[in-house]
Amino acid sequence: MEKNISLQAQALSFAYNKIPILKGIDFDIEKGSFLSIIGPNGAGKSTLVNIISKVLPSFEGDLKIEGKSIKRLSSSEVAKKIAVVPQYTDMGFNFTVSEIVLMGRYPHLKRFKGENRNDYDICSRAMHITRTEEFSSRKYNELSGGEKQRVIIAQTLAQDTPIIILDEPTSHLDINFQIEFMELFYDLNKNYGKTIIGIFHDINLALQYSEKIIMLKEGKIFADGKTADVITRSNIMAVFNSDVYVARNPFTGRLYVSPNFNLRINKEKNISKKEIKIHVIGGGGAASHILNILHNHGYILSAGVINNLDTDINTAQELGIIFINEAPFSPISKEAYSKNLELVKNADLVILPGIEFGNGNILNLEAVYEAVKMNKKIIVVDGINISIRDHIGGKAADIYEKIISSGAYLIKTDEDIIKAIPEVI
Amino acid sequence: MNRKALRIIIILIIIIIVLIMIASSIGAANLSISSTAKIIFSKVWGIRNFIDISSISPQDMKIVFDIRLPRILMAVMAGIALSGSGVIFQGIFRNPMADPYIIGVSSGAAFGATIAIMFAKGLKFFNLSLTSLFAFAGAILTTLLIYNISKIKGKISILTLLLSGVALSSLLTSVISFLMIYRTHDLSKVYFWIMGGLTNSSWLNLSIITPAVVLISVVIFFYTKDLNVLSLGEERANQLGMQTEKLKLTLLILASLIAAAAVSVSGIIGFVGLITPHIMRLFVGPDHKILYPSAALSGGIVLLFSDTIARIILAPREIPVGIITSIIGVPFFIYLLVRSKRQVF
Fold this sequence. Notes:
The complex is a heterodimer. In chain A, α4 runs antiparallel to α5 (145-158), α11 (288-296) runs parallel beside α12 and α13 (334-346) packs parallel to α14. Chain A has 17 helices and 18 strands. Chain A is of the alpha/beta class. The N and C termini of chain A lie far apart (68 Å). Chain A has helices at 45-52, 75-81, 97-102, 117-129, 145-158, 175-192, 203-209, 227-230, 233-240, 263-270, 288-296, 311-319, 334-346, 362-373, 386-389, 395-405, 417-424, and strands at residues 5-16, 19-30, 34-38, 60-65, 68-69, 82-85, 163-167, 195-199, 212-217, 220-226, 244-248, 255-259, 277-281, 300-307, 322-326, 349-352, 377-381, 409-411. Chain B is mostly helical. Chain B has a single domain (3-344), classed as ABC transporter involved in vitamin B12 uptake, BtuC, CATH 1.10.3470.10. In chain B, α4 packs parallel to α6 (158-182), α5 (130-149) runs antiparallel to α6 (158-182) and α8 packs antiparallel against α11. The longest helix of chain B has 36 residues, at 58-93. The two termini of chain B are 36 Å apart. The A-B interface holds A 50, 53-55, 74-80, 83-84, 86, 89, 91-96, 99-100, 103-104, 106-107, 109, 111-112, 114, 159 and B 1, 94-96, 222, 225-226, 228-229, 231-233, 235-236, 238-243, 281, 285-287, 289.
């Protein structure tokens, strides 16, 4: 048993009324880590929390807290190691905020002794961190939802445990509160060495802060490891049965997922579209939406040239589209340009989305002009005037005008593309 | 316990002592409060040597000390037991409508008492009335039965506990009604017992009830912080390290015991155990560490006050104290119902 493991599950199983809920779970959670457990409803997340916090004392297999089996620890010993932050609930009795926070000291108190100086100190620190001290003498039931949740967090911090479990405490809060709470726990993790285990419905919230993810499916661990390894389109498809788009947030560098809402319906309707090959010019994220629309309508697609780290690369990868790429933030090379022309040559139709043009990607515009010369059908998204999108003093606008005047079909928005294709071909 | 709590408790104890003096002087033989005080203090160890009782007749001594005082102290003890037990039941059930009788103490005691009144007339057991013993046994057995009915896989469901309590209580009430019709000549006796009254108080009864009530109340006091945590809900209490099943069982036993002890000597006195905790919650808040002792002491005050009214309002006839507590209690109960309705809907 390694010293830096705070929680370890070994062949953990649990059945309720003979219906198996957890079916042999193994994991190690390192001290000081920030880990999330995700999974659809019924995957066993809540049961797992209840076993870890000894709310459910009997189960198969073993669970060790800092090396000691939970079965040999009393309820109050467990509560000194592990605190659970639940969603706030209303209370039958109208306690004040400080009375509620003080109850967090319960596992530390002896039967015939009251709270001492130390207990009060820990509580006021907990109230300070959660900014609940300003309303410490108010009645809990009279607070707003966000304030109540802060009080519950203060109560949990008063427990003063090395491990904190977040049992979906933010899922009913506004986004500003969600972020505030997550920042608080992130701080506790980074600066106070607390091990944080989060149970989340919102995958994006989990991704934003977690280093590791355990993915549960039907009472088993489906995937367990570093966030980027676990959160993939195929894993989420397998566990949540939903098609999502996985990408990195360009601001935070964190992964995020976004559902592809209309995918299934459109696929079923339009799968038998005649096999038209379309090449989409990419760059700066301008092609993503069109690629997605066309993909949903069953067209055969290619794309290029796109710089690595560009959103359009992600889209093309996720949708499984052939694309030509270029090193990040570099101008398009001759080599990439000629590869791109190959794809153009192969296509029945070339689409030019509303891309911004500079010296780096002028060759993409040249490629469209080449397509004109090859007598390819051209559709141009002309929502924003080219003079605004031309950042190289009219050079791009010149080529653009030539493309237009040679009879390219103009559309105003990405959505018009589906109506435009039958008219062009 | 903080200073505020201590102050409230001292004030309540002073009120009880003053009320005991006043109540002891009220009755058919009218005595001054000062002579009553002298009589009472002359029996208190440590200060009796300083009290001059030469001016008081032996007859007055007897009236106050042997007739009035046992009953007055019994009212205080029964009030403490019922109201304290009410706090516990409301805390465990997290329901403001809970009272000491909610899981069968009253119907069980009434059933036991009815059996004793009808079939064991005048019998005594070591000088204790069999009615009291049967009532106590009936209360405890019924509570145990209801507890066991609601225990599923080692866990008690609060909802099943309430439902089986209601069901078994109405069964026992029907049996009592049947017995009352079957043996009409005992009807008024049974009826009077059920209404509740403290006429049978004696120093002997008191010497059994007092240590029991005081001891159990002190034990319960050390569980008041647990009740606070339990009011967060069982799952949360579990997460905070409480063994909720064990705690619920302990508290149910202790609260039922003192309620049964009170009922066995006083009959079913309604509403003291329901309203007093609520009144005190308005004054001291929901923290059981303060609420429990202050509600228990206030229960003593309320019952002593009600019993004194019951003694004098139709003097020389007496009315059962249960009627007085209900007349005060029912309007308050309805007020609570209306108020909680407004909060819920």
